[in-house]
Amino acid sequence: MTLPPVAVDEAIAVKSLAALAQAQRLRAFRALVVAGPDGLTPGAIAEQLGVAPSALSFHLKELAHAGLVSSEPRGRNLIYRASFEQMNALLAYLTEHCCQGERCEVTASTPCSTC
């Protein structure tokens, strides 16, 4: 079963960007992106970032509320994963009309500002 693409409107973009506009949350999100689909436990994230688990819990909740991460119980642990669909939808929203109003493909060799 194929899921429909994630749609991002202005309100969702603002909520997502607000969640990422805090250093610890941004670091946690980036750690989950690097971890890929396997995700990480809160303990592993806290250890990687050098953050107190109680503080990390607050940040993960904010990221989840914005739809940027999801969690799944696995035994006695929770596994957090980055929502790559939401991340990609946000990036697409931000770059949708970056080339003087025309759609374009952004690559590392052709940044958006040079289209």
What does this structure look like?
With 115 residues, the chain is mainly alpha-helical. The protein has one domain (10-100): Winged helix-like DNA-binding domain superfamily/Winged helix DNA-binding domain (Arc Repressor Mutant, subunit A, Orthogonal Bundle). Helix content is 50%, strand content 10%. The chain has 5 helices and 2 strands; from the N terminus they run ααααββα. It has helices spanning 10-20, 23-35, 42-49, 53-65, 84-95, and strands spanning 69-74, 77-82. A two-stranded antiparallel sheet has the order 1-2. Helix 2 (23-35) crosses helix 4 and helix 3 (42-49) crosses helix 4 (53-65). It is elongated, with a radius of gyration of 16 Å. The protein starts with 9 loop residues before the first helix and ends in a 20-residue tail after the last helix.
Which helices and strands occur, and which strands form pairs?
Elements: H1 10-20, H2 23-35, H3 42-49, H4 53-65, E1 69-74, E2 77-82, H5 84-95
Antiparallel strand pairs: 1-2
Task: Describe the structure in brief.
With 115 residues, the chain is mostly helical.
List keywords for this structure.
115 residues, mainly alpha, Arc Repressor Mutant, subunit A, two-stranded antiparallel ribbon, 5 helices, 50% helix
The percent of residues in helical segments reads 40-55%
> What's the structural domain tally?
1
- What is the H level of CATH, i.e. the homologous superfamily? Winged helix-like DNA-binding domain superfamily/Winged helix DNA-binding domain
User: By helix and strand content, what is the structural category?
Assistant: mainly alpha
What is the CATH domain class?
Answer: Mainly Alpha
The first-to-last residue Cα distance is 36 Å
Low-confidence stretches: none
- Spatial order of the strands forming the largest sheet: 1-2
CATH-defined architecture: Orthogonal Bundle
**SS strand fraction:** 5-15%
In N-to-C order, the SSE pattern is HHHHEEH
And the CATH topology?
Answer: Arc Repressor Mutant, subunit A
Mean pLDDT score = 87
